[in-house]
Known about the structure:
Structural class of chain B: alpha/beta
Number of strands of chain A: 7
Strand order of the largest sheet of chain A: 1-7-6-3-4-5
Mean pLDDT of chain A: 83
Number of helices of chain B: 5
Strand content of chain B: 5-15%
Helix content of chain B: 25-40%
Oligomer: heterodimer
Amino acid sequence: MSKFKKKGDGDTPAISTASLPDIVFMLLFFFMVVTVMRDNSLKVENELPFADQVEKLDKKELVMYVYAGKPSERYQRQFGTEARIQLNDKFASVNDLRQFVLEERRTRREDLQNKLITALKVDKETNMGLVSDIKQELRKIDALKVNYTTRDGNVKFNQ
Amino acid sequence: MGRRKAPEVNAGSMADIAFLLLIFFLVTTTIETDSGINRKLPPIDDERVDPPKIKERNIFQVLVRDDGQILVNEDQMDIADLREAAIQFLDNGGGKGSQACEYCQGARDPKSSDNPKKAVISLQNNRKTKYKSYITVQNELVAAYNQLRNREAKRLFNKEYTQMVKDFDNPDYPGNKDKLEEEIKLIKELFPQKLSEAEPK
């Protein structure tokens, strides 16, 4: 045993790293809890415009998302470069919106069904024609609350 | 020699495993919540009601063209001036008698709006207008309303309107929420957001 005896104890002892796993685990649990996995992958380009007069959209259970924009590069050969709507995971046309909204309404709690907000995540280069069609369709099914989702920033960056 | 104790499992690599998981969750985390401009679309009327007659001076017509240029009452305007122009229009208070507006601080130009309660901003766009131009204009118009509401809220309740709305949405707000709701309603009545959107041509 004396083989391993230290020669002298003039050196400062090494800092114990025994609690390192605990610290890391703590961080790990934090991030696990706050992580929201993206549930639908984007198939359209989605660069949101900037605005600064915004309100937070934090009641997640009230929100349904409608994406619109040009198809991403790898879908362009199939779907062209004209702006399209994406609902859930699929490309859709304006006519599919009705079905989508009814479906979303059915999956929500009954007392929330009339308070649903449609978050329009529209790429900034999209023509308003498509957006107007979406709005018109939403009006027809009485989904009147919309939110134009934007990035927080000065509108000057939009140019 | 007696039986040896079972060797302890080496826990040295535990940290590595935990780090790996940590990095994975770090990368996939999105903490931020979405934010944007809230709007309420007008309901569709089945029977065509005659639109109420609105005097021309009470309408602030904004047209966003294909290239993002803005025409206000048919004159070209820079986007930087839009907010100020909208405020001047809303806050004009040119009305007399029952139409008068005591709290307005505008120029009281008889050619501009009578009263904020009568003033309508009409927003038009073409089908080829870019979404970003539309959002820019929406943002400026909402800003104009917010600025005026802030001013009135400061005068009446010594508090910014936007702060009041934030407090109202905050579940931990210590004050009286019913009272706050009343106050917000009052401010909204002083400057009602009358933003009408025509269908694009």
